[in-house]
Specification:
The chain is α+β, with helices and mostly antiparallel strands and 176 residues long. The protein has a single domain (25-170), classed as 2-Layer Sandwich (Alpha-D-Glucose-1,6-Bisphosphate, Chain A, domain 4), CATH 3.30.530. The protein is 25% helix and 36% strand. It is built from 4 helices and 8 strands; from the N terminus they run ββααββββββαα. The protein has helices spanning 39-47, 49-55, 142-151, 153-170; strands spanning 2-3, 28-35, 62-68, 75-81, 87-98, 102-108, 118-127, 130-139. Strands 1, 2, 3, 4, 5, 6, 7 and 8 form an 8-stranded mixed β-sheet that branches. Helix 1 packs across helix 2 (49-55). 25% of the residues are buried.
Length: 176
């Protein structure tokens, strides 16, 4: 079984910019989308295992969820099945839940192959009857971020939000 893993290297968590301040922008990937759906529905789609199983992952992927307990200290374990038959083990450990505003979690792949771990903050901002979802992935180093991007994190993230948009339309939202 393959994992969403990248070679390990030094992980300077406190990288500093030339002026001496902490520079997280070099270590992050941010993906954002506005959905024509109320915030409560978007949050529920992201946190209910029955819903997540229908839309999570890039185009052509399916999922097998073995556990999803959305609470601080809870865990979501799942395997993503790629269109080529490859399998990617994932684990999310929830750190903070502020319903329906924010999720904060640590993401890791298969520890047996030394996958890169990163933190994710997903915010759900209400804009009338729309919702701006922003997903911020923060890596330990710029190099790990670059490996994730080369692996397809931005393209896959956007495809995942495309699939969420389709799911929300089916649930009564208008469009994304």
């Amino acid at each position: 079984m393959r994992s969403t893993s990248y070679p390990k290297g030094p992980t300077p968590v406190n990288q500093r910019s030339p002026n001496g301040t902490r520079d997280e922008s070099q270590r992050e990937i941010v993906i954002s989308r506005v959905f024509d759906a109320p915030r409560a529905l978007v949050f529920q789609a992201w946190t209910d295992s029955k819903h997540v199983a229908q839309w999570w992952g890039p185009s052509g992927f399916s999922n097998t969820l073995s556990e999803m307990e959305v609470r601080p200290g809870g865990v979501w374990q799942f395997v993503m099945h790629g269109p080529d038959g490859a399998e990617y083990k994932n684990q999310i450990s929830y750190l903070e839940i502020v319903k329906p505003e924010r999720l904060v979690y640590a993401h890791s792949g298969d520890e047996a192959v030394g996958s890169t771990q990163f933190h994710v903050t997903v915010s759900f901002a209400e804009i009338g009857n729309q919702t701006r979802l922003t997903m911020r992935m923060l890596f330990d180093s710029a190099e790990e971020r670059d490996r994730a991007e080369a692996f397809g994190a931005v393209r896959g993230g956007n495809q995942t939000l495309d699939r969420l948009a389709g799911f929300l339309i089916d649930q009564g939202g208008v469009s994304a």
